[in-house]
Task: structure prediction
Amino acid sequence: MDQVKIIEIKKSIFANNDQDAEKLRKELKVKGVYLLNLMSSPGSGKTTTLIQTINRLKDKIKIAVMEADIDSDVDAIKIKEATGIPSIQLHTGGMCHLDAEMTRQGLDNVPMEGVDLVILENVGNLVCPAEFDTGAVRNAMILSVPEGEDKPLKYPLMFSICDVVVINKMDVLPYFDFNLEKCKEYIHMRNPKAQVIPICAKTGEGVDAFAAWLLNQVQEWKKQ
Amino acid sequence: MHELGIVFYIIRDVKEAAQEHGVEHVNAVVMNIGEVSTVVPEYLTDCWRWAADKEDMLKGCELKVNIIPAVTYCENCGAKYPTVQHGKICPECGSEKTYLLQGNEVEIKEIEV
Result:
């Protein structure tokens, strides 16, 4: 009978990805390119928010967008048509998230000449993308009013890794039992440092504040 | 829902470790999965069967899961309590200043060859 031999490994399966992500971040730093990882549930208004934000910033800095989806290229086309900036579509092939290696492969296909800011629109999902460091400089997420104020309690990891939480669809607030103050309280329970920016991507209300945060981030990243 | 992706990572790391040790076939992989790691063990083993059998080195290889209980520590009163039952708020003193001691692990403990 064959003897069973045990080889101890004791290694987190995220360890390789964390290393890849750290390496990518360093390379981006050298190139002076800021990568933002934008996450949310499906239907929270990521693409509409991006279009509004890009149109406020595109004369000041050079921007490119990577859209990640399980399938289709509707978002990439929408962004390109509405803003005129380069936008590529990544297909995750059924996977629910992007990791650092997939992000790197995506960046290889972006026309990077003179680009200051790359926005990665991650797969719409509040669970898996939070687990995998993409190599982005900062994480931001969009929570929309119809989703409910309790989401920070249900998806704690997502809220704990985001530097900014944009609350979208503020125009429908009167029709939902959504308490903005309660929501902020829940977010800060998970992440005391998270900045909360209420907006309405449809009307553009509040988008200036998010655009200003992002512009400042990009400028600081290039300065240091 | 992300279990298949995680299975691909496990396969990559196990193959790497097996090659390092000059092993040709792995009989079992033992995982440490934390209670609040967001990984569902049943989905993980289902995905594993499907994906592992496509690899010569891992045909028939069993995935064993050790569940690591989630424990939270309260900075305010020093209590250690089960996270799943009580969440973020300390049941002893009501403080929110708590952090997870263990329970979010997704790691390969060992392989049997």
